[in-house]
Amino acid sequence: TIHKSKGLEFPVCFVSDLAGKFKNISGKVFTDDEFGIGGEVFNLEKRTRYDSLVKNAIKIKKKTSERGELIRVLYVAATRAREKLILTGAFDEKIEADDSVRTMLEITEAQNFMNLIYPTVASSSDVFNFLSEYISIPSIASTTSITALKLTFTE
Hints:
Helix content is 30%, strand content 29%. It is α+β, with helices and mostly antiparallel strands. The strands form 4 sheets. A two-stranded parallel ribbon has the order 1-6.
């Protein structure tokens, strides 16, 4: 596993499924040592309900903490390669190249690692030296097809 490989190096490392969705934080009630208990607020006159400010604050805190841990795990995985690192992932949308630094909001709102990594890699082809192409793959689950990115790093 990635955690057990900390401190070790390997000639070639694969980091797969960068397009895998991050876990969604959901629930009716959240608790936190700092913020206390957060739940839903009910408006009886309008017959509506919405998340309280405390619940939203706790969700943001948990999401930020979870993303931080995921990024630490990705860092450990990406730094195990001595000679070659191979990153794999497909996604169903074309992500634009963008070399700007990701904001905390972009990091917490990202759905997967591909959304965080690919814009920088695509805008820095002189550094990463890769070839990419979009290929259409028929989807087994539906009548639509997904767009996959074939990303090949070269020397």
